[in-house]
Amino acid sequence: MASNTPLQDMAENFFLCSVCLDQFKEPKLLPCLHRYCSDCLKTIIQASHGETMKCPMCKQECTIPDTGVEGFKTDFHTKSMLEYIQLQKSFEKKDLKKCISCSEMKTATAYCFKCKHFLCDQCSQFHMSNPMFIDHQPHILNLGTMEAKSLTLEKLAALTEDPRCHIHLKQQAQLCCSTCGNIPVCVTCTYSNHKGHDLHDVADFAKKERQSLEMKLLELNKYRSQLYELPNKVNLVLRKLTENVSKQTENLKMQYHQEESRIKGRIDKSTKERETGAKDIEKRRSNEKKQIDIKRDEDLKKINQKYDHIVETADRKFEKELNELQHTFDQLESELLSKTESCRGIFKNLEASKELLTTQNENKLKEILHYCELLIKRYESCSATTSSILASNDEWTGAQCIPDIRSACESLIQEMKREFPELQSLSDFVISDITKVTVDKVTIIEEEVSVVDVEGVVAKRWWISGMTDTGDGRIVTIGSTPYTVFSYVAPSPCIAIFNSKGKFIQESQIPPAGLESVRYCCTLSKFKVVIVNSDEIGIYDVRDGSYYKRSISKVTTNRRSSRRHVSCVATDAINQSIIVGTCSKYVYVFDHQLSYKYTTTLPNMCGTSTDITAHRGNLLVTDYYNRKRAFSIKMENRLYKKVYEFTKPNLDDGDWGPFGVCTDKLGFIYISWKAFISGEARCILVQYSQDGRQQLTTRSIDNQGRIQGGRPGPGPPFWKSVAFFFFMWGYFKFLIGNLVKEKHNIYPVALP
């Protein structure tokens, strides 16, 4: 039986793990009786998914215990056999081992399974004879005897010590617990951990289990012959399978060769048919290609003719555009050359004007200086004579000379009191900049400019009658306090100055001239403004607020013309003149020191001068109240002659009359036209070219205007009716004069 088989006769691979291919280490037994190392079995369990695993050798499924590897039984029998084999190999190699008794490294001759340590020869004899180790003696194995070499499994079991309790490790196990998987337990455990379990005596339980196992072994042996005959049957079937495979292979080869021959025949036939079909297709392709070439040549001929015509048409069109472009730029260059000549002429005129003005001012200053020198000599002579007579104490001399001396002193005192207000103005004269020549058309800005209230003006309820600017960008407005019909107190003329953003700077009042409060103004120089009314012309200095004036009626030679109402004023920088227009044909001309020069008349086609402005040596005049026409006139021998007439706007069938005129820095001309359409006054602003002969743009400047017609004259009704228009037109003159293709921030004064 297997129990009598010597251990050395057992196959060596019986003790090898099929996973790591090494001797078992802590072997665990599966239900299929295959063994694996504890670590190898743990790896198998980790690779499995679920609650079951398959044995790597027989593929039988087994349930994985809840405790994992520890839940499988340890194969103590295999473990004991491995322990003995290791002891035997160690003895055969004569390895030095530490004796458990003498603690010296010697060749071991025995092994105590109870001590689980090696013994040397001397200590093993002591171990066998000493009564102290009487319970060890049955468990001592002599490694050098023949008995050790022929050790059977039964003898090995007798040598090994009974297992100890799995809880009380120091106590020998007397019972086994079937409830817990036949684990060894001591008597103490029957009252504690294993109380109520199915407990058995180890000897009785082992005998019973051994008898059951022998019965199973007999049953297995019944099928032994059948099991060993099965490989022969399988080999026989394999031989028959090989023979059948050989026959089928030969049959398949024969069928393949037959089918291959048949397919090759069909391929040859198909090749011939393909070649024949390809030749036919190539023939038909060649014929159709010839037809296509013929058709293409015909179509290309037609297309070429069509596009030749298109190209000729395009050439004619672009040749025409090129000619027009050349003509346009020829005209442009001609205009530029003409403007260059004009600019050169203006430059010469300005040079001559500068020399003339300088000479005039120098001569006047020399006259004043010569007069002062003579006056000083008279004063010194009079002073010396007076002192001499007073010192002589001669009564006859005093009686005869003192009356004459006193009379001479009175006239001398009057002349010494004389002031020269024009003296300051002689140091300042205006020479205009040469207007920048350009061919670009400047359009009026489309944005509406808001009218804002300026501090102090609305509160005082001023009437604005004139507005202009100075060379340093300040805005000058002239107006008056309101006229009351129940009072004969004349309105007080006022001048207000604002910066370019509408911020109030200063205010001045000028003496009133009777009941006439309507005044007009224009720029004279960088810091000076000309102000006129019906019988007064003056120069206002914005720096210190000084105002120098003269009476028009006292200096003009034509008394009849001097009673005409003044309607406008302008300065001519080229001729160094101040031109004052009236509501008649008469025009007064002053120099920049307010010295009267002469009075002239407008041409017969002009009835009145509603507004005037100087433009490149000519005078632009609007006549709203009489002719409703606008002209450009030129002075020749102190008489004005017509140069050209401005074209009236053709808009809404209105009878448009020109009210105001001004120019911008580029020389473009702007005229405001007014007409009554359906009982409502409308006002537009027309931009003309620099030569005044072409209208460029038109826009409305006062869609809500209610401006009364009639000739200007003194009195509150006229002031109240035209004050707003004077303000608006003065504002537009100021705005246009400061615009060159871009919008400036202008803040005009609001009316009450």
Question: Your description of this structure?
Answer:
The chain is of the alpha+beta class and 752 residues long. Among the domains are: 2-158, Herpes Virus-1 (2-Layer Sandwich), CATH 3.30.40.10; 457-737, 6 Propeller (Neuraminidase), CATH 2.120.10.30. The chain has 13 helices and 33 strands. The strands form 10 sheets. The chain has a 4-stranded antiparallel sheet with strand order 14-15-16-17. A hairpin with a 3-residue loop joins strand 23 (577-582) and strand 24 (586-591). Helix 7 runs antiparallel to helix 8. The N and C termini lie far apart (140 Å).
Kindly provide the radius of gyration, computed on alpha-carbon positions and rounded to a whole number of angstroms: 70 Å
- CATH homologous superfamily assignment of the domain at 457-737: TolB, C-terminal domain
The CATH architecture of the domain at 457-737 can be named as 6 Propeller
Tell me the number of helical segments per DSSP (H or I, 4 or more residues long).
13
CATH class of the domain at 457-737: Mainly Beta
| Beta-strand fraction estimate | 15-25%
Q: What is the SS-derived class?
A: alpha+beta
Number of strands: 33
Instruction: Classify the oligomer.
Output: single chain
Shape: elongated
